[in-house]
Amino acid sequence: xxxxxPLRVAAGNSYTVEVVFRPVIYEPYDDCIEFECPGGTFFVxxxxxxxQLALALVECVDFNFVAVNELHTREIxxxxxxxxxxxxxxxxxxxxxLSPMEGCVAAGGVQVVTISFHPTDASxxxxxxxxxxxxxxxxxxxxxxxxxxxxxxHLVTAESTLHFEEVLNGLVKHxxxxxxxxxxxxxxxxxxxxxxxxxxxxxxHPTKGVIPPEEDVMLKVTxxxxxxxxxxxxxxxxxxxxxxxxxxxITGKCMGPAVKLSLxxxxxxxxxxxxxxxxxxxxAPTHKRSFQVINGxxxxxxxxxxxxxxxxxxxxxxxxxxxxxxxxxxxxVSFTPRYDAVNFYKRVTCLVKNQGSLFIDxxxxxxxxxxxxxxxxxxxxxxxxxHRFLEYGISRCDAQTQELAVSQISQYGQVDxxxxxxxxxxxxxxxxxxxxxxxxxxLHEFFVSYDDQRRDIYLDTSSCDFExxxxxxxxxxxxxxxxxxxxxxxxxxxxxxxxxxxMPPAFEVYPAQKDILPGHSESFDIAFNPTCLLYTSDxxxxxxxxxxxxxxxxxxxxx
Length: 559
Hints:
6% of the residues lie in helices and 45% in strands. The chain is mainly beta and 559 residues long.
C-alpha cells in the first residue's frame, strides 16, 4: 500500500483500498493490515499461499464384529485437498489388505481404497498402515489404523427333522421353519444336499443368504413327490464358512390316487349267436355291460384301458379319459358274438396315472340256439386258477402235475423237491415249480409281446411282411406259426373282422381253426387281397389312382 494517508469516509459510504503484493521469496505469506479509527482499531488479514501437497482421509476404520473365515470389505476415500497431483503408496503389516496399494490422486480428486479382511480364527485384530505421498520436492506421510473383532457364527433351529407324512402324487406340500443366528456376527449360510444319487423331491427356499446378528429367517421346504408308493428321506446340511454345520432330515411318503374299478370282472354269461345268413355270416345282437372307474382322491386322474374301442370286447365312450376329483366315469363294455359257439375271455389292463395298474376280466360264452351242443360255460374261478398256475410256474405242466403242486402248496406251503414239472408229454426237460407266487409271470400278458417265447402261446410272424403289392391281383400267401407251450391242447381260432363300408377285409387266414397239441407248433397261411385305391395329389395328375394297399378309398376332387 502507499504511505497511508488519513481517510474520511462519510456515514453510509465505502472506500476501496488497493493492496499490491510483490513477493521476493517463493514461500507462503500471512500478514494483516491495521486500520486505526477514532473509536479503536481493526485488522484485515492478508494471505498469499503457494501450491501445496495435502491429502485428507479418516484416521481409523473399525470392522467391529465379523465372522471367521468370511471375507469382509470396507471402503475409504483419499481426498487431495492440495494444488499438486499426489503419488501415494501404502506400507502395511497385518491381516488387512488394501487395494490399490499405490496410485495417483489428481489435485482436487478422490481415490477409493478397498480394505479386505479375512480372519481365520476368533481374535482381536489391530493393524497400522502408513500412507506415503509425494509430488516433486513435496512429500508427506499419514497414519491410518484398522481394527476388527472376529467371532464364530452360530446357527440354531428347533426343527432338525421335518416329516411331510403322506402326500398325494400330483400335489405339492410346503413346510416352514426358522433358522436363527445366535451369535454377534452376521452369518452367511448355505443349504446343500448330502445325497446326490436320487432324484430330488425336496427343495429349500432360499438355499443361501445372510442372517443379521441375533436375528432369524424363515425358510420354506417344498415336497413335490413324483413316484407313488415311495418313501423319501433326504439329508441336508445348513453350513457357514466359520464351520458351524447343522444337519436336517426331511421325510415324506408319496401316495397314489385312490382310483378303483366298481367291478373286477364282467361276465356276459351265455349269449346267443345271431341267425345264420345265406352267405354264412350272422346278424348277431350286441350285448352291453357297464362298470365305473371311481376316483376317490383330491386330484384329477388320467386313465387308459389297453384295449381297442371296437375290438372283440368294445369300450365306450372310449378307452381313455380324465376323472375329476371325487367323481367317476361310466364305461360300457359291448360284446357281439359273430363267431362259433366258444368261450371268450380277455384280461384288460387299466393304466392309471401315478397309481398301479388295475385289471378287469371280461368273459362270455357264445352258444348257437340251433345247436343243442353247447360249450361248458367259462366262469371266473377258471380264470383265477389259470392265473394261479402262471404265478406258480405250472401253466406248462400237465394236469396231473398241476393238481399235485397246488395240493402240496395248499397243505404244506411248499412243493416236494422230487416233483418236477414236465413241459409236455415226451419232453425230458423239466421246469422249476415255485413255492411262492411270482407275480411278474402274471403280468406277462400285458408287458410281454405276443411273439415273445416267455408266453405260453406265442406267434412267429417274422415272414409276414407283404411289402408293396398291386391292387386286384391274386398274390401268394405267407405263413405264420403259433406255438403252444402250455400243458394242454388248445384250439386256435382266427376271428375275421366284419366288412367295412361293404368291403371285405384285406387279409384272410387259412385255416380259420386248428388244434395245437402241448409243445407243438402249427402253421397258418395269410393271404393279402388289396382291393382299394388311394388317390394322391401328385399321381392324380397323370393317373386316376395309385394303390397303397389300404382299405379306404380317398378321392381327389376334379377341377
